[in-house]
Amino acid sequence: MGGKNKQRTKGNVRPSSSGQAAEILVREGGVIPGFVGFDTSVSSELSYVPAIHGAKDIDNLVDADFRLVLRKLSKRDGVTRLKAVQDFGSMCQERDAEEVKGVLPYWSRIYCKISVDHDRRIREATQLAFEQLVLKVRRSLAPCLKSLMGHWILSQCDTYSPAASAACQAFKAAFSPAKQPEALSFCKEEILNVLQVILLKETAVTLSDPQSVTAEKRESKYVRLLTSSLLGVKKLLSLLLQNDRAALEERLSHLVGSTRFWKYGKHKTPQVRGAFFEMVCALCEFTPALVQAKAARLCPAVLLSIDDTDPVVLPPVWEAVLHVDCWTHVNARKGFFPKLWAVLKEGGKGMAKALHPNLMPLLSKLPHEVTEPNVDFYSTFFSAMKSGLFSERAVKSSSENAIIVAALVECLRFVILQNTKEEEDQGKIRTMIICQQLLPLLENALSDSFLQNGPLFFLVTEMLISWEKWAGLHAESEVKDNKVVFERLLAHFWEDITLMFVRHVDDEEADPRALEGIAALLKVMRYPERVNRKNVHKKKSVRMHFSKPDDTERPGVEGEVTEKATPTASELVSEKATLTGSLQTQHFEDVVCQLAQLCLVHVNEKQSERHLVFLSLLLRSFHTPTVFSTLVEQDERRAKGSVEVSKNPAVHFLRERALLWLTEKERRDTEHVVEMIFSSLSCCSQQETTRILNHITMMGLEWRIILQITEKACAGDKVLSCCSEWLKGSVLGEQLLGLTEELCKLGSSSRSSTSTSSHSWTLISLVVSQRHNNGRNIKHHLPKIIEKLHATLSETKSLSDAGNTEPLVSFTFSLVRECLQLLSAEELLLTVFQLTAQDQTHTHLSGGHTLLLFVELGSSLWSNTDYEVKEGGFLHSVALWVMKQLLTVPLDIKGLQVLVLAVQSLVETILSLLYTLTFSFLLTNVTFESFPQWIKNPLLASRHRGVSVKQSKDMWKFRELSRLPAHLSTSALLGRVMQTAPAADSCDHKGTKSLSPLTNHRYVYSSELLYALQWCKEMKFSPSIIAAYHHLLTDWGLSEGLNSHVPKKTLLETLYTRSVTDGGLWSLTLDRYIRTNDLANTGDLKKLFGSADSKLNTLQVLCPTLSAQDKETLVTLATAGLINWQENDNVCCYLAVLQCCLNANTHVDVEIIQAILATVMEWRNSKEDWFLFSRWIHNVLIPKEIVH
After folding, report:
1. Interior CA angle at 732 toward 731 and 738, to 5°?
2. Contact present, 925 and 1155 (Cβ < 8 Å)
3. Cβ(75)–Cβ(122) under 8 Å?
4. Are 1115 and 1085 spatial neighbours (Cβ–Cβ below 8 Å)?
5. 524, 622, 991, 1081: which is deepest, by most CB within 10 A?
6. Using CA atoms, how far apart are residues 167 and 128, in angstroms rounded to an integer?
7. Mapping DSSP to helix (H, G, I), strand (E, B) and coil, where does residue 544 land?
8. 3-state secondary structure of 683
């Protein structure tokens, strides 16, 4: 019956066997299958894996692992294919070359399929794996090249950049740069076949399976392959040699002759359109004969697409436009130019960076017959460009605006250079450019800050310098044939721009913006080298290259645009003039002199403030003897020779004009007059400068004016060197000393600081500031100034009569920073610190501002390696003063906060500099006063029996506190300091390890803080000041003490010692610390067991944490004491210990309890006083007054 257990099959047939099937095929004469399930003919499927049985000769060529990976590459799941191609790359890298070579016959068709996969990750991984295969097989790849190369080039133009980059890297790994043209030449027909089939035959349906791929993915793949194919043709042409290109022209002619090909120029996808125009550029560059033959189609396709402003399409479109030489197939006036004007009027539609640099090369490529009449064409062209300059997008973007301006000026400059002959038509073009384009543009810029801040003024100046060189006005210029033309051009320009300037300036209601614009333009013309080049759009060169830089075999390729006669922008910048600025023409300085005279007339006759400001702006850039002589001559004519003229016209103008304007009482804005004074001083010697500034200092001017003059004198090294004698002279020094006395009187009074005093403080601080490196100039005045300040601050140190001393304090820091070596400076700094560390509501100081100053000063003080901390110095005095404040001055919460903040800032500043020495002064000198253990009896009566200390009446005064006890203030301050410097062992400022004084004292300060917290708790945070104190500690993170900053074991020992010594509240502090941290401390029980209250308190605290054996020991000692009591023994302590043990569930024999109770009953009869029989309660516990 065993047959019943056999496996049955449907129909009783035998299961299939692939091995048997292979044997049957061989036996019956069948061909050995090359691939499983298919014949050996070429198939479009991916089942390329050799059979496992029956074909040993083929099976040996491919490793089993490779077969498995190749099978996975045919799966539909993208993740499986991705993992498979990654594994394939790893295997190619790890396996021997012979094993990898076995895969080559099957790799070509696999590569052609997966290199165009929908998944970009698979495409990238395919190229990375291909690189590993190439590196392994090297020359063995040659037989497969023709089948691989078409898709290889296609992959190098993949729209997914990582995939394209990986394909290029694999190509470079296979062929050196010298071998690449040879390899492509070998496969050029096959490559073009692949690309041409995609461009002319394939569709979205034929490239992907409609049943398994969505329509969206099919379309995406089709667009991607179209783009890659168009770019592939461009890449192929750029890499092939000229002979190979010529060999392909017939095939390319077929491609270009197709109607379908030209439709790609109007494709709905920008990527395809962009790739199409890039290919057209390559055709124009590498196959000019073919382009000429197809010009009828190519020219309209390119020239009529210039309005395509898509960011992907526009650059290649304009590159193609610049390659087109034939305009006969397009009606430029009806088709090309209208589209060009529309694009220019809209500022390139946001694509100015890509479009406008091509405009000047476009002008050079336009045929003469297309632009006739030239005047009308250029007028329309430049008007459209100017309209684009004020378009919505250009106005909103400074970069777009700058590019348009640069292109506009570049085109103006080019057109001028192309029309330098004496012919009438060219003369009209030059006149039109000057009168209708350039000058209106500059006039618009005069009142438009957007244009003023751009590159317009600089580029116009460059153009004028170029014209001057053509006119031979520069020493290094060569004599040109058209010199006369440029001379007339310059004269025409300066004549017209002068009229424009005069029209704006010679107006009583002149627009201030226009005046500032004129001054800005003239300044740039005067000093073009000072222009911020970030705002200038520079072109690297006027030469246009549309081929690779290394293509040296084509020196005369069409498409190059060269302006041989025009220097580039970078060349013009390097041209340095040797006379009065970069512009050499006399017209320039004549314009400035004429404008300065007009300003002086309006100021003298109509007291025009706007013209005075404009004159100041002119003199900043043109402080030359010629300009000052012109102004003085006008004064002479006005005074008809009655005024004595100085030999130096600048000095005469300063004395007769500038100083008079400066002293006018109704004038509030004097900065521009001060600028005129220094413009005049630039033409004076140092002696004259010192004499004039001393005279101005003694004129009794307002301090704000002296401040403006001082700031200007310190504004630069050149000016500072000229004014140094004045800055360190006695005239200014005496004035400053008098000012200090005046400010000290103001600071010590209760009056608030005025704007005048604010200028005064700023003036003194500026003069002694290290920023200008001139503090040494008045160093001999510092001791007197410090002495005066110290006396004033000492008088106002009392809180009751302190005034608004903040300006005084700020200035004090400035002085002390300059003279740290003076002992008087340290005393002054101590006084300021004392004011800083007190309540600001009384001192009228801004705590944060003053502390910032103090920290800044401390850093400069203590980082000085020459500074020595010594007894009697600043730091030592601060420590003593802080200790005095803590122990003798009752502080409220606000006062404590201010004091702690000041000390904390001081500690933070010196922490890494003078850590050890400073803390030895600041902390070790603090001694805690004998703080009362307050109401011991009620305290211990509620928790610890056996202590009866009669309290004094004074202890109850703590219930009515209005100021913090010294102990609380001291604990808070030291706790805050401990937070700032938590480490016991620190590094000194030299980086060496040193033992801090906190090593010996931090446990004491930590325990004192816990004691203070326990005090607040036992007071039930009453009155309100105690609650506020506890909230303050909580805000500082000290509500649980400093447990995280000190070792628990050591702190426990410290608390234990204090409890044994003092008991009472210290015992409660120890109790709380043990319970909070779950600790245990077993001391010597026999030493603790005694009559001292402190020891009893400690024993009661420790009892719950003792072991059972220790508790039994305590019971034995207490029982012995009770049973064997003597007359003078403190039997209460024995009872208290026994009670603690019983409360802790200690086992006690019944006989012992009975003996103890018998002893107590004996006391009941013989010691009535112990039980308070016949005693007044007020004689025992509290004073009589409290009972009432």
Report:
1. 95
2. no
3. no
4. no
5. 622
6. 7
7. strand
8. coil
